[in-house]
Each structure stands twice: as C-alpha cells, then as structure tokens.
Amino acid sequence: MDSLEIRPLTARSVVLSTLLGVHPPRLPARYLVRVGDLFGIAEGTIRVALSRMVAAGDLVQSGGTYTLTERLLARQARQDEARLPRPARGTAPGRSPSSPPSAVPPPTAPRCARPCRRCGSPNCGRAPGCAPRT
User: Fold this and answer.
1) Is residue 85 within 8 Å of residue 68, measured between CB atoms?
2) What stretch of H or E contains 74?
3) How far is CA 10 from its chain centroid?
4) Would you call the peptide bond into 24 cis, given omega within 30 degrees of 0 as the criterion?
C-alpha cells in the first residue's frame, strides 16, 4: 500500500483558515505573513495571495488590514455554529443528559384508560411494564 502524501497548505488556505478562526476576522498583513511563515510559506507568496483574494472578492483591504467579505463571514458563522455542542439525542432542549429526569416536565400524552402498573401515572404507558395506552 502506498504511503499517504500530505500536501502542503496553499497560501490562500492558510490566510482563509486563519481569518475564519479569529474573532473579529480582521488581521494586519504582517500577522498573516507570520502565520504563513509558520507553514513554510514565503512572505511574497502570502502577499500575492492577499492581493489575489482582494481582487477575487474574498477579502477587503483597508489600511494594511484584511477582513473577510460577507460571503465568508456567513461561512464563519456556520462553522462557529457547527462547533457548538448539540444536545444529546432524545434530550429535551436545555437539559443535559446528566440532569435529573425530574427537571424536565413529562410529555403531554393522551390519558390511559387505566393507571400505569409501574408508576401509577395515568399519563405514562411508555416505561417497560406500564399498561399500554388505550
């Protein structure tokens, strides 16, 4: 089996990844050049990528500072949202899986014809051993 080759990041990818990861997404060119240097990308290569990205409408340049455009700001917002923890499956909103069940109101369901054999509730019918709803 061939070994997997890891391709180096492009200057554009380093700049975009950096700006997408900072809040607010605005950095001076000298900082972006330093980040490029961490990835072995020459200063000239980063500066050319910045110019091309401004020309392509990916970045806005003002006073030596580069900022993401609206399209990429929307992408940043989607990425930020995707990083937020999601509630566990089957967990009520605002309740963690470790919070006690009593913290969540019982779901509204039609009343059973007879009380649950296990808990005595007329609304249950869901736990193992409960009377089925009729």
Assistant:
1) no
2) helix 70-83
3) 23
4) yes
